[in-house]
Amino acid sequence: MYKEKDEHIGIYTSHTIKAIIRFLTTELKQFDITPEQWIVLKRLAANDGITQKELAVLADKDRPSITRILDILEQKELARKEKHHTDRRSFSVFITPRGIELKNQLLPFLEDVYEDRILKDITDEELEVYRRVLEKMNRNIEGV
Amino acid sequence: MYKEKDEHIGIYTSHTIKAIIRFLTTELKQFDITPEQWIVLKRLAANDGITQKELAVLADKDRPSITRILDILEQKELARKEKHHTDRRSFSVFITPRGIELKNQLLPFLEDVYEDRILKDITDEELEVYRRVLEKMNRNIEGV
DNA sequence: CTAAAATAGTTTCTATACTAACTATATACT
DNA sequence: AGTATATAGTTAGTATAGAAACTATTTTAG
């Protein structure tokens, strides 16, 4: 573990994440939603009525991505946009009843997918170290 | 660490990887290459003359992605394709002198980027656990 | 040996990220 | 007040992943 960190950490992390996203995409197909759309819906459910910009920050998306993903969520009638009352540049975004219903299904579903499948046989101690490494990497490259 | 694994593991991992890829993209800009193109060039350097299909497997890309990325590497004169001698459906892919030169620069450069910056202040013990968690997650979702 | 199936690679389509340019509106400066 | 700057959101262009359809060739089966 002392050498070739590009290979053993960088490229292997990249491989694993792609596999997880592929796995989640497959699991979520039955709900007709992608993992990225899910993150936006989840943030929206917890912060109903916020602006696109605020939603972008919370969902870790840039503004073009939020525009695109909200278009899709609107098509699927999971979210809707209203003109902001005081700032005519902005939109307020709301989750629909259908969106709430889906969120209520997906929250426990995804907890189970992680608990029982993706993270099976991984101890809490290992997960704590794993999470700490992520935090350190984030801090190391912060502001870039 | 016992609950909300979708949030604390899934979404946070996704955030971190995006930040790392953004960081690497910025670092590699001076070499006019992206992280994904780098993986392909690296595998090609270690396996000169293999077919696109073999390269796709080694670089963890699907066939359309390899087609696209090789187009770019050819444009940049880092790789070239030749018709396969015995199987006329295939191409053999070769790295160019320019590609070799770039690889010789990037291999140590990226080792340093990981060692000195991305993984700064992360112990070998932590990295071993981190890598083990990745391996377990990979095994858990294998074949999906 | 010929027809069917498999394989290598490309192209097209959808979804995503990111940059840059653009429109419309709001805020700040003088 | 009027101009300059900043902000919210959209659109367009490049790079990537993945699915599906397609072409050309090879392999397999009968």
UniProtKB/TrEMBL annotation, chains A, B:
**Record has Repeat as a keyword:** no
Which parts of the sequence belong to the HTH marR-type domain? 1-139
Q: Which domain of life is it from?
A: Bacteria
What name does this protein carry? MarR family winged helix-turn-helix transcriptional regulator
Q: Which InterPro entries match?
A: HTH_MarR-typ, MarR/SlyA-like, WH-like_DNA-bd_sf, WH_DNA-bd_sf
Give the originating organism.
Jeotgalibacillus terrae
Q: Does the keyword DNA repair apply?
A: no
Any idea which UniProt keywords this protein has? DNA-binding, Transcription, Transcription regulation
Which Pfam family is one of this chain's hits? MarR
